[in-house]
């Protein structure tokens, strides 16, 4: 249990003269006080419930595992060289770590929190995404301008396809039909058709469309209904909106035959250096972190229009929206803080201090905690999202050198 849980308990220890006997008594009172300290201010969890956060540390070649039930460091795992991105399997207890300099993906068994396998891919992998079935993963290889398809059942690469220059990120549509790749150096977006997974299939991908004109293409979001993708053009001041082809024979395709093809909808002007897109869970709006404008922009996904651009802090680098669609959290890399924006009220709702240079963000499963990876101080700020005094820094837990990505996995022991 972190000390911050129990500071109020320590204040109640009697101030006794420091004779040997009384010192022993005082220490016993401290230990008794601490041993009875529990997470009384958080919801109870059922028996056998476990929840962990995994943080990739690019400078120490490790993944830190944090226990989110007891709020303590569980262990540190050695992985490949320069881990830069993580993904959690949606249907099985596995975590995947991209090791950029090693050209590999590490598989972590979340039940034991041990390294289970290492899969070779290609040069400088930068990003991994897992399909909705949990059977396939797709890795963007920035150094070889390619996408690797991984069979997660057999833990090996099964195919590779070329894409644009320096693919930085990839995202698969919720219906599993389209893989969207942001090619940072060529300033383009590649759309691949994904063969639906069946037992024994190769699940190859086939390039179906490419769109240029998005310099520094980086962050991607896809709407919950798989109808549109939005890509941040980080070397400029725009976000590209793309209509994704509807499935042949679908209701949408029958209503409008033009929806059978991918097509670009708009290039939307936002702030300078848009580096990250955060989408409301309902898909209605997207929030753009504009790193060099100290602002965020709000995009309506229904009309493909920018509703406004607002100041938020110094060097905003990432964002996340609460499950109820009401609150946006933005990590201010240059201000050592998180900015809060009330979506329902349309106004700033305050800020919370973190460690140095907060970057990646992730909620706990119940969203009572928000985790921020502090890339310069090498730790994780744990923010309590609800409380009598509003959101506040709860504790800071150690990570490794240059933490850069976080995923959370909850599981229930039988």
How does this model look, in words?
It is a single chain. With 414 residues, the chain is mainly β. β16 (217-222) and β17 (228-233) form a beta hairpin. The chain is globular, with a radius of gyration of 23 Å. The longest helix has 16 residues, at 20-35. The protein has a domain at 1-38. The strands form 8 sheets. A 4-stranded antiparallel β-sheet has the order 3-2-1-32, with no helix packed on it. It has 3 helices and 32 strands.
List the helices and strands and how they pair.
Elements: H1 7-10, H2 20-35, E1 49-57, E2 62-67, E3 72-78, E4 83-88, E5 94-99, E6 104-109, E7 114-120, E8 125-130, E9 136-141, E10 146-151, E11 156-162, E12 167-172, E13 178-183, E14 188-194, E15 205-212, E16 217-222, E17 228-233, E18 238-243, H3 251-255, E19 263-269, E20 274-279, E21 285-290, E22 295-300, E23 305-311, E24 316-321, E25 327-332, E26 337-342, E27 347-353, E28 358-363, E29 369-374, E30 379-384, E31 392-398, E32 403-412
Antiparallel strand pairs: 1-2, 1-32, 2-3, 4-5, 5-6, 6-7, 8-9, 9-10, 10-11, 12-13, 13-14, 14-15, 16-17, 17-18, 18-19, 20-21, 21-22, 22-23, 24-25, 25-26, 26-27, 28-29, 29-30, 30-31
State mean pLDDT (0 to 100 scale).
89
As a whole number of angstroms, the C-alpha radius of gyration is 23 Å
The amount of helix comes to under 10%
Described by strand count, sense and barrel closure, the largest sheet is: 4 strands, antiparallel
Oligomeric nature of the chains: single chain
């Amino acid at each position: 249990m972190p000390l911050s849980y129990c500071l109020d308990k320590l204040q109640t220890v009697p101030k006794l003269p420091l004779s040997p006997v009384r010192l022993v008594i005082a220490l016993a009172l401290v230990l008794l006080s601490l041993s009875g300290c529990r997470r009384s201010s958080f919801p109870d969890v059922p028996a056998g419930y476990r929840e962990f956060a995994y943080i990739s540390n690019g400078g120490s070649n490790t993944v830190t595992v944090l226990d989110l039930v007891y709020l303590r460091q569980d262990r540190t795992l050695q992985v490949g060289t320069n881990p830069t991105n993580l993904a959690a399997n949606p249907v099985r207890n596995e975590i995947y770590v991209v090791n950029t300099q090693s050209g590999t993906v590490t598989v972590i068994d979340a039940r034991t929190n041990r390294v289970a396998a290492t899969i070779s891919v290609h040069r400088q992998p930068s990003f991994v995404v897992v399909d909705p079935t949990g059977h396939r993963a797709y890795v963007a290889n920035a150094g070889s301008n390619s996408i690797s398809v991984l069979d997660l059942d057999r833990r090996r690469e099964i195919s590779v396809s070329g894409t644009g220059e320096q693919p930085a990120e990839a995202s698969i549509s919720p219906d599993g039909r389209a893989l969207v790749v942001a090619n940072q150096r060529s300033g383009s977006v590649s759309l691949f058709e994904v063969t639906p997974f069946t037992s024994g299939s190769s699940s190859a991908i086939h390039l179906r469309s490419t769109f240029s004109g998005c310099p520094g293409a980086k962050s991607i979001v896809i709407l919950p209904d798989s109808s549109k993708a939005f890509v941040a053009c980080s070397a400029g001041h725009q976000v590209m909106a793309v209509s994704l082809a509807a499935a042949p024979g679908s209701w949408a395709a029958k209503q409008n035959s033009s929806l059978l093809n991918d097509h670009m909808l708009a290039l939307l002007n936002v702030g300078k250096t848009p580096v990250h897109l955060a989408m409301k869970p309902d898909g209605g709006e997207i929030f753009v972190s504009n790193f060099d404008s100290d602002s965020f922009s709000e995009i309506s996904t229904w009309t493909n229009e920018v509703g406004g651009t607002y100041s938020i802090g110094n060097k905003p680098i990432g964002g996340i929206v609460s499950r109820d669609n009401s609150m946006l959290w933005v990590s201010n890399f240059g201000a050592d803080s998180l900015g809060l924006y009330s979506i329902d009220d349309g106004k700033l709702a305050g800020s919370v201090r973190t460690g140095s240079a907060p970057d990646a963000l992730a909620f706990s499963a119940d969203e009572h905690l928000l985790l921020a990876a502090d890339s310069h101080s090498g730790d994780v700020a744990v923010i309590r999202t609800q409380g009598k005094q509003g959101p506040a820094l709860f504790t800071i837990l150690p990570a490794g050198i240059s933490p850069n990505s976080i995923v959370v996995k909850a599981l229930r022991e039988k």
